[in-house]
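Internal QA ticket QA-208
Title: Verify multi-chain structure generation after dependency bump
Assignee: T.L.

Test input:
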Amino acid sequence: MRLLFAKYRHVFNVGLQSNIVYRWNFALRAIFSLVHLVFVFILWSAAYRGETEIGGFSLAQTLTYFVTLLVLQFFIGAFSEDYEISEEIRSGLINQFLTKPINYFAYRFTIFIAARLVSGLLALVPLLLALPLIGPYLTFPDEAWRLIVGLPAIFMSAMIQFTIAYIFGLLTFWFLEIQSFVILSMTIETLLGGQIFPLDLLPDTIYRISQFLPYYYQMYFPAAIITGRIDYASATQGLFIQAFWVMALLVIAQFLWQRGLRQHTAVGG
Amino acid sequence: MLNYLKIWLASMRYSVVRSMMFRGDFIMWSLVELFWMGVSVAAIAVIYQHTDSIAGWSQYEMLLLIGTSMLIQRLLMGMFWSNLFEMGRNIRTGNFDFFLAQPGHPLFMVSTRKIDLDSLMNTVVALAIVVFSVRQLGLEPSLADLAIYALFVACGLIISYAIVLLLASVSFWTIGTRGVEGGYFTLYEFSRLPKQAFSGAANVVFVWILPMVVMSNAPARTLISGLSLGDTLWMLSSTLIWLGLGIGVFRRGLKRYSSASS
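Actual output:
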């Protein structure tokens, strides 16, 4: 057990170091996100003109939701994991993992955690600088249960984000090019994950259906818990559906991995 | 001049043949773009479930604005985006030499190397959104209005081209600026907002200094409420200014270019 821990601790360290190299890319991305936040502020401020509430929430609550989403994005969102995995399969780098006592999923997930730690902390810097401007709009509910339920929700969201990216990466075993798949699924994730608007603004039936899809648990769910958009009952109930999706995606990933390896021929050496 | 047209036509033919060779890819990418456009339309539909106006614009006025914004962007993506994006990469790798050796102005050769058929196909969808909104609003634009609309969209395309050229030309000076071109998309998002939504510092930056907002608002406004002289002057002059800026920076960069060692 201790050996296992030591092994992945090294992986984690390597992940940290190699991602600190990309600090300028993350910084650039964070700046773009901040500009996007300006867009969100202007759009929603204009939509709230003449209304005090939209879907039962004030302008400040809605803006807080989008700020939370941005922070979560950098801490748990999958960025380019799918492409990296795809590249490792295509180039044959993956072969070295087949002969070593290391689990490829666990290896990639450890690196993912390290990478998000770096990108999340880096994204906080421009956000803290903008805090004097954003601060007055931020309003979080203060119930303690939101943190207790929110933390596991965040962790499981990270797992869902990563596992979906991992599954897309594994598609490389069958398809040469995965980019169009990834972007196609990204549009669905953007919409049904709540990036464009809080999902609770959807018509009731569609909102209900969305709660059974994995996208709901990728980003909207933890953000909605933290910013007070869903109540205790739906939050705890959501945790179970989220756990189900984590398991289901892990099973699919494992299945594809075993099938893929059968398909895989290691070329060269 | 005729010669350049011939070259452009030849690259178009080449691109079409290429797309047809990778048909599955072509269909996938067309779908991708269609989906992205669907996301924007869905966002509008959902927001207007809860409010009647965004900065004084009704739902279908807003849809017309978004359709116009998409139209300009699809045209840019179809004709110039990947060419300019690759230019940045080629400058970094030194492959840019290849364009300098071609019989034609380097800027022309770089910009017209290929077209993206899937984006061009989706201009039809964007146009359909525009036509649909116009009909929903019960507008009957005159022929002159339509001509001005087309002119403004063309101006928007030229301005977008100039800005991406400007961003891609940064590669002449710095090697490590991967992804700067992507900044265009972040800024272009603002073209989906009505001018009236902006106030204060945001108004100065996005409406007065940067051209994105006026670029989509001016053509949409022309269809909704007829031609405005102020918009016309603004569009024409900012087209000239941004194109001048883009070409100017590209030229200075070109002088600096000394290939990359290999």
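Spot checks passed. The longest helix of chain B spans residues 59-93.
Status: verified.
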